[in-house]
């Protein structure tokens, strides 16, 4: 059988040039087809296998990309830089220890190559999630890469990402500023400036808006803007709920009130000024039936006035409203986020899932408060039994109030946090391409249960106030 490439007088280098040209124009399917045709004639050419691995990685065919990359390395084991694509694939698939071992071999062979040091830095930062001591090595190799290429904006951006993951936000911000001095219009650096360099969410949103102005189709930037808006919306009921606990500590109450005012100013002032026209309205498009959430949160914000106006009997009503508002904002924000998921790459989805998981984990303090409240409610139930048995009902009203308040607070504090944790699991399942229906049902069930418990507790507390009188 005659070689079709031979008829055209084509060499492996000719095929590689055509593949690279197609890659440069973003025509990945055609590039993959051309590469496959070339490999049929030149199956022992490591460069073609390496190009195929790059293409499959860009197309998110990770298994095929890894096979091609390993084949390329096996065909030319003495090529010190050929394993780069394989390291990238391993990092993307979060197999950080394998990536680290291979990157260490590359750095040992070519210590003066910035890209090799950066790959090792990223791998060490990934390992640092389980072994915090690895963060030191990640910072060290990122700094080496910067010293080798101090005027390369891409190197500075990548090093800043490593520093941010290692928890050194100040150094990350400094590297981003250096990068922007070299490439002031670089969208990646502008987004990193929003993450590491902005002092307020309003400032971060202005930077995000600048990136959107450069490229309105950038889905990652759109997600960053929407995420800031939704986070600030949720903080309205969240701060109001925390103010109930803060009343026990006057100084803490002042801090919560100041943060609440600051959040409102940023949300309705800074963010509106920085957001593109219609962004607030568009952010509700996927859940218009939940638009009541923010007005409800604002109406329930002055909850002490409700308590004064009803003589304490209706104190639970605004807290029930705050719970409903926070849960509605969580579900609306998730619905809005799903609209953008189809535009993200798999690696971006995993990155988002990791960020939201870390954010959801910050709610464990709320779960602690909920647990204490629930234990208090159980103690109150015991006191009711003792009162009815020993004192013929004396003090029953106060105990009923305690039961209602305790379990109401438990639902108000625990409900949104548990829903956020379930939604974080849903994001992870989505990123991995696994079924998510069970997680969605669990979040809705938790929300309904929290509302039911809080409503019942508000009623019980109101009845208790009447009995206590």
Automatic annotation (TrEMBL):
InterPro entries, per database record: TPR-like_helical_dom_sf
Keyword Thylakoid: no
Bilayer-spanning residue ranges: 239-269, 364-391, 397-424, 445-468
Family annotation (Gene3D superfamilies): Tetratricopeptide repeat domain
Keyword Transmembrane helix: yes
Keywords from the UniProt entry: Membrane, Transmembrane, Transmembrane helix
Protein name (database record): Tetratricopeptide repeat protein
Organism for this UniProt entry: Leucobacter iarius
